[in-house]
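Format is chain and fold; as here:
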Amino acid sequence: MKDDIDRKHILNEIKSTYKFKKDSEFARFLGIKPQTLASWHSRNTFDIDLLYAKCPNINADWLLSGKGEKSKLVKNTESGVKYIEELESYKRQLAICEENTNIYRERASNLDHKNKALQQKLNHMSNIIENNGYVFDDDFQDY
């Protein structure tokens, strides 16, 4: 039996629904590598469990068949549609903010190490100045 479901089209529809401009943004949202997403496109396949988990407003029947209503949310009003779109946009922004927060935490840790090293150098230079330019070995003892 031939599988005639166009999963590449389904992926593109989901990407469009969530307003991603680039495949790399969509892949980041899904938590996969862009190469994995490219492989799904070329092989006409995808991880249905992952898509269903990451895209909670997507209708499971549509995800399985590509037929019927894409969204499992009923869009009765224009304001409801706008709310759903804003919510999805906020989810994407939150994912990007979380990623940036991790980057900044790492950078802050690196700066903390650099600050400690600079403080040690400052203390050493202060000791030299206090001793009129002479450097004394801590192990030096008077005889």
